[in-house]
Structure formats: structure tokens, C-alpha cells
Amino acid sequence: MEALERYRPIVDDFEAFRAACERPLPRVVRVNTVKTTVDRALEALEAEGYAPEPVDWNRTLLGLDADDPGANWPYVHGWLYGQEEVSALPAVVLDPDPGERVFDACAAPGSKTTQLAALMADRGTLVANDSSLGRLTALRSNAERCGVTNLVVTNSDARNYPLGPLGGEPFDRALVDAPCSCEGTVRKNPDALAEWSRERVDSLAGLQKGILRRAVQATRAGGTVVYSTCTFAPEENEAVLDHVLAREDCRLAAFDAPLPAEPGVTEWEGETFDPTVARARRVYPHLSDTGGFFCAKLEVGG
Amino acid sequence: MNDGQRFDRLPATAADRTDEGRPTREAVLGFWAERFGVPPATFDGHSFWEKGSGKVWAFAGEAPDPATVEALGMVFLRARQEHPKPTTEAAQRFGREATRNVVELDREAAARFLAGEDQELAWDGDWGYLIVAHELAGGVEPIGVGLYLHGELRSQIPKGRRRQL
After folding, report:
1. Could you tell me the pTM of the whole model?
2. Dihedral of alpha carbons A146, A151, A155, A157, sign
């Protein structure tokens, strides 16, 4: 928890924030609409004696008080995906349509990928990339359980993403759910901060800048890129946006976060960022009763 | 030539084949129609690809450059064998359309099937691969594929998907 102390200057009601980070996270599943409807999933869960509680901001999310949310028939049928509530945010903000070309730059193990496929009604082309072949095995297994068929899986370093499987055709939308220091997952994984170091944050920030720049380049003018992390560190969030805004043809778009969220910070440890980074959204555990999260929406071109 | 490391799109018919053994789109759809009564139009939005000997993948997107790709849609069918075998995932996703060679199990038998157990079954239909289903939330939902032989239903649920409920 020591690592979080540095955020005292930017987090309102810091003591409540610290306390919330020590509470376990409510369990949530997402209904996979490639295979079923929310109503049928609710009916099946209730028939098995569960008491699913719809999450107010998204109808596919259900609170599920169960030790093993995978030990039931609806899960076996690929109707459910165990996914932290706040991690459903970036796909909702990206909002892909059926038939589009969509890029998921850091896709494994696939919770957001399968959510994107469901939002696309399993139509169009969803390119899911990850640099780790091992993690792609988990992604493929999860996607197949969810019945997804519009997925192209690639194994590249997203910073140097080549022309890609679509022969250089640009994407309509891209999601960069970047590898990060994961501070915001501390409620799920109390060891999340054990590995924390400033060097690691800086090294991740370099990676994040490279991946986001490449994703902007790979997206058509008028297209949308969503950048998200599960960390509070401005080095990995607003500073990454600031870097990319100065170098690529894109701008930050304002969006309505469907759950309580704070604006991006424009100053951090003596550095000042592009003022539009305030359009990004920071999600804090004590305000939304979720994990911590960061999400920004970029419009590409002109 | 079939290269097991590369995705090759299935030719439409046998006349379009350059590799003798390559399954065709016509044969794949014909199998689902004949064996399970699933209308070929169900797959109008899908292309079919082979990677690995006889491993057929179903893909709904635009055709990519196969050289750059690790996976394409879902593994759909095992071909290049006397009796083609649908995957668990294909049975779950497309098996709802099936009108024959579907066996519906009661709650207890369905749980045993999911756990990977073989079980005796009174079935007077065809032998071979069946779609195994059960009632869930007001509909008949396919769980996977079973092999029916000599009065016994052998669960084909892959080890990684088996569960004790």
C-alpha cells in the first residue's frame, strides 16, 4: 500500500481511497451475448439458486456472490465471462459496430476481446494481438468458449505492429488496454503492489507510448482509439496521452463515463500536460466501489 | 500440398481443389446438413480454413493474410477422417439449429456427460457422433459432442472443459 501514498495530492478523500483499496472486490460476470441473452442468463442462474444482481450502468454485467462463478451450467455454455466490473468500461467507450474492422492491441487473456466481439454481434473483423504466445493460448480458449468466430489472432509486438493480417487496411477502431503496473487491481490481488518500483513504471510508460502511437497510426482518419490501464500512475496515463498527442494526428474526445469518475490530471510532480488530458477519466475504488482504472478516448485525424 | 502450419482456405467444391485430401466447403456444409439437419445458409457469413491436418476453422471476418495469423475464428470440425467430428465449441454455437442426431439428457446424465463420463443410453437413432443437449432456461442447449456406440454414449468433452457440477 506504500506505493499509493504518492497519490495523496491528486485523490480526493485519500483516507477513504486507502480504505477502499483494502476491501475485497465484489464478484461480477458479464453475459456473453454472442451465445445468449441477458434474460436467459438471469433465468438460468436463478434456476441454479444464484441471486444475480444487475449492475446499474451496463445491462450485461451481473454481480454474482459465488466462490467459483465458473461452476454452473450457464458458464459451461459460454454464457458468462468472469470480468471485473470496471474492466468492461473501455469496450463500452470504444463502442464498435457489427461489420467494422477493430484492433485489440494487447488482447490476452480476452475479457475485453470477447466483449468487443459481442458488441460487434460477432460480425466484421476483430484482430486480437498479444506479444505473449503463452497468454494467447488463454485468449483462444476464452474466445472459443464464448463462441466467437470473427476473431483473427496475431502474435506481434504491438509497438511495431506490421501491416497486419488485413494487408495494411486501416482499422475503424482500436483498443489499447495497455500492460501496466496494475495498481488498481489491488482489491483483487493484494500482492499487486509488491513489485512496484518507479523504474518499472517508467519502463512500462515507454512501452505504452509505443503501443498507443502505433495504434493511432493503424486507425483510419475519423476512427476511434481507446486507451486504458488499471493503474493510477500519471506516468502511465496522462503522460502517455500527452506524448502521443504531440506526435500523432489525433485528439482527445470528451465522453460520459457511465460510472462515477474523475477527470484526468493536468499536472503531476512538476510536469504539466496538454490540458485536454482532463477529458480522460480516472475511476477510483472509493467512488465507484470497483477496481481502479483509467480510460481515454481519442479521435484520429484532423 | 497441405502445410499444417499455415491457414488455407477451403475450396468451394472438389473441382476447385489443388490438394486431393483437402476438405471442401461443400462437404463441410453437406455434413452438417445431412448429419444434423443444420441448413447450409446458417454458415453464409462464414469462410472455412484448414490448419493442421484436417482441423477446420470457421471464420466470420474478412479474409486475412494467412501468413501472419495464429488463429482464425473457432476450430469447427475434424475432417480428413471417415467420420467428421464437430468440436464442442461448434456444437454449442451452431448445434441449436440441429434437428436430428441430437440427444437430450436429463439433469443428472448431463452432469455426467460434462464430467467426461461414458454412460449407457437408450437411443434408437444412428450410431456415431451426436450433439448432446439439455434443457436450460426454457430452451434445449447443446453441451457438446458424444460418440454413440453399442448402447453407450462416450463423452467427447475435452479434458480442459470438463467440470464436476
Report:
1. 0.97
2. negative
